[in-house]
Design a protein that fits this description.
68% of the residues lie in helices and 0% in strands. The longest helix is centred in the middle third of the chain and has 37 residues. It is elongated, with a radius of gyration of 25 Å. The protein has 303 residues and is mainly alpha-helical.
Length: 303
């Protein structure tokens, strides 16, 4: 072979995308995959509630009040999971309740992430008095126990589904603000940010295009876990009678409507909504833990 003929080096492989890293990490975690499957099923149930529910969640069958589930004595396949104290089908209310409960959790997460990203980036980039004011305000919110603060807010503005979302939003906003601020401050000291500033990149582009994408990994994990936290908080408010009001088929409100009177006489009325909350929250937490492990820089670098 002539000496002047150079052998071209093979092109370097493109680095895997964030989605590919997430999927690879989730497949290695059995608990995360179980959580992903269960969460996907709950989401599909919520989306297709109109098709899957055998009855309207508000329809009352007075001739079948407190009918037990099909596996219990006196149960019927007409009401697979039984009926409540006014004759409403438990299965239908659980299916529609998945839609409302997930709507609360997802809406709180989306708005919290949106507002938290903006406030966190402003605090990190402006610093000084602006940073001090924002952080002290977040510290003030976090100094009050979550449930107590949400109860106080709902007591002031009144119970209801929209007010519940607002109260839970206020309670969980500080965690996103502080997370984005801490991640952004870490990135601001790196060379690529200094180079972007020297190149004349504007502040908005620097915040949302240069710095924010490198803060996404911990934000994804926190947002996933935040859905389950918001769902639990809304269920607690509903149980206390301060959340979604009857006859809305929200899981926490379903617990509150009959928890005291029917716990021993008709336990399925209380047990089934509680199980729905338990399974959904545990599955979301398993998925969140899997995302945290999948996005761990040490695992990615070891591959």
């Amino acid at each position: 072979m002539p000496a002047d003929i150079a052998i071209a080096a093979p092109p370097a492989a493109a680095p895997p995308s964030l989605i590919a890293e997430l999927w690879h990490g989730l497949r290695e975690n059995r608990g995360a995959m179980i959580g992903l499957v269960v969460v996907s099923i709950v989401v599909l149930i919520a989306i297709f509630a109109d098709v899957l529910a055998p009855y309207s969640p508000y329809e009352q069958f007075r001739a079948h009040v407190l009918q037990p589930p099909v596996w219990d004595a006196g149960g019927s396949w007409d009401f697979v999971l039984g009926t409540d104290d006014v004759g409403r089908d438990i299965l239908s209310r659980l299916i529609y309740g998945a839609r409302i409960s997930l709507f609360i959790g997802i809406s709180v997460m989306v708005v919290s992430v949106f507002v938290g990203v903006i406030l966190g980036l402003i605090a990190a980039f402006r610093g000084g008095v602006v940073d001090a004011i924002l952080m002290r305000l977040m510290d003030l919110i976090m100094s009050v126990p979550d449930l107590v603060l949400s109860v106080v807010i709902v007591a002031i503005i009144g119970p209801g589904l929209v007010n519940t979302i607002f109260a839970v939003l206020v309670v969980f906003l500080p965690r996103y603000v502080r997370l984005v601020r801490a991640s952004a401050l870490t990135e601001l000291s790196k060379d690529y940010v200094v180079a972007a500033r020297v190149a004349g990149v504007g502040p908005l582009r620097l915040m949302f295009v240069t710095v924010l994408p490198n803060c996404v990994a911990p934000l994804i994990v926190q947002a996933t876990l935040g859905i389950s936290d918001a769902l639990l908080q809304a269920a607690a408010l509903g149980f206390l009678g301060l959340g979604a009001q009857p006859p809305t088929p929200e899981w926490g409100a379903m617990l509150a409507s009959a928890a005291r009177e029917l716990l021993t006489r008709a336990p399925w009325v209380v047990t089934l909504p509680g199980l729905a909350i338990l399974v959904t929250v545990v599955s979301i937490n398993l998925l969140g833990d899997g995302l945290r492990d999948a996005l761990d820089p040490r695992r990615i670098l070891s591959r």
